[in-house]
Amino acid sequence: MRQERTALVLGATGGIGGTVARRLKARGWHVRAMARQGRMLAACRNFEWVAGDAMNASDVARAANGAALIVHAVNPPGYRDWQRLVLPMLDNTIAAAKSEGARILLPGTVYNYGPDAFPEIDEASPQNPVTRKGKIREEMERRLEVSAGEGARALILRAGDFFGPRAGNNWFSQGLVKPGKPVTSITCPGTMGVGHQWAYLPDVAETMAALAERENELDDFATFHMNGHWDEDGNRMVEAIRRATGNPTLRAYPMPWPVMRLLSPVVPLFRELVEMRYLWRQPIRLRNDRLIDFLGAEPHTPLDRAVRETLEALGCLPPAGRATARTVRLAEGR
Fold first, then answer.
1. Whether the predicted model's global pTM rises above the 0.70 cut
2. Cα–Cα distance between 283 and 121 in angstroms, integer?
3. For 80-135, how does the pLDDT look when each residue is reduced to its tens digit (9 = 90+)?
4. Which structural domains are found in the chain, ordered by start?
5. Treating both helix axes as pointing N-terminal to C-terminal, what angle do 132-148 and 82-100 enclose, rounded to 10 degrees?
6. How far apart are CA 246 and CA 243, in angstroms?
7. Annotated Gene Ontology MF terms (predicted)?
């Protein structure tokens, strides 16, 4: 029997999955999290943990028993085997959702879109991806839309590049700074003067939870976009990092794209990042009008606070880092 406030989270040991799971739990949901046996020990003990593999249809079906919501936030680690693994995992989630009459919640990306949809993207913009990963994401959403007419409702929330505590693999922690080390310089993937959109992971998770609370008001296939933090000239995030560290003279260097391209045949991560470089070469912004119309407001943490909390979680602020909070308070006008 389906429990209206039971959510199965696939990928709860990861950044987005874990953060969404905690937000749902805080709102009173019963959270069931599926993970491989070895990954459950260090994870949140407030969830109902079940052992399983997202590649195994029977594991997913068993874990989804009675769930009203399935958060599909599972991805192959390290960008490996995307083409082989991503779609079968989603198909298993769709099958389980059909069986339970559940809603699937998927974190969306801008990878689905090509230059014909730029610079401002809304939920009706055409999806003509130009990368391998983008084509897989487009196919994921196509399958969800088809399944929405077959008993598996879907909700997609699309946002900019993630950053934040426990955010996992992202441009902020893999590009701008080096986790576990004091910030001595900043690496910029984009070009100064070109806008870029960021999304603070706790805000994304709170938005997802708020939408899930009103699931009965949604279309069977519902999509929303977040505004997050818009860096209008590519320098706003750099300045926020400088303020968080209390060092206004931190040097910012361009990302070594030529070297990454040279090494991309042997380094899978570099290959994937280079393929996504087009997203940094021109301003691309998601419009959140539909989200505002539906929720009334978008959860939004001030940028300086969000950056400071991210750097602290990454171990990038020195022991005196918290003493620089005065700089941040002044910047936030407090």
1. yes
2. 11
3. 677 788 999 999 999 999 999 999 999 999 999 999 999 999 999 999 999 988 99
4. 3-163+197-229 (3.40.50.720), 171-195+232-280+302-331 (no CATH)
5. 10
6. 5
7. aldehyde dehydrogenase (NAD+) activity
